[in-house]
Amino acid sequence: MPHFTLRQLLEAGVHFGHHTRRWNPKMSTFLFGVRNQVHIIDLQQTVPLLDRALHAVRDTVANGGRVLFVGTKRTAAEIVADTAKRCGQYYVNHRWLGGMLTNWKTITNSIKRLRQIEETLDGDTAGLTKKEVLQLTREREKLERSLGGIKEMGGLPDILFIIDTNKEKLAVQEANKLGIPVIAILDSNSDPAGITYPVPGNDDALRSINLYCELVAGAVLDGISAELGASGQDFGASEELPPEVMMETVEETAEIPA
């Protein structure tokens, strides 16, 4: 399991909430106090709650489950996509489409359409006019932005990891409707309702978001390792190594003196 300390959380600014004017009274139990009219989040609560959330991710993946990273705000979008790709999971970082979970059949059809366009554009386009190629390219770009992070998911996720529940209200509602557990970073202006694994913390600072994503990715890789270990898979007989094994191999190789 990924290890973290209260000091790391402090250095990443996880304890900084919003101005006292912008707060949700439902978050009062997670707040330590006020400094310069800014709410300070109680990291003594964040530490065990974050650890609990990471264990939930690890256990989900170890049982063959899928994790969906959700973060569409500008500061989170790139980090969310990069982290999810690195640990072999899925993401939504552009805009949450209504019905992305509750109307999965329609989403699946849109993913099929995206694949068809990709096959057409990657193949021989000699029979198409320039205008048709341009229209298909634009349609592919639009679908890729919305569905690119979930096109390989193959079904509903087993757990969601959300940054900024105010922006991702629809994702929380759909997950709740389907009984999918939700891990969420909750700032001082957030609503903890409907969150299975609440993690009180700054959901705006780049360093904070980076830290959360790194820790969740570590939990995912630990879960993959546990799943492979339980299945007794022989890494040496595999055509491709799982991502965490590759990372460890590269690190060890780098340490070997020439």
TrEMBL record:
The keyword Transport does not apply. Pfam families: Ribosomal_S2. It comes from the Bacteria. Keywords: Ribonucleoprotein, Ribosomal protein. GO terms for biological process: translation. GO terms for molecular function: structural constituent of ribosome. SUPFAM superfamilies: Ribosomal protein S2 (SSF52313). InterPro entries: Ribosomal_uS2, Ribosomal_uS2_bac/mit/plastid, Ribosomal_uS2_CS, Ribosomal_uS2_flav_dom_sf. GO terms for cellular component: cytosolic small ribosomal subunit. Belongs to the universal ribosomal protein uS2 family. This is Small ribosomal subunit protein uS2.
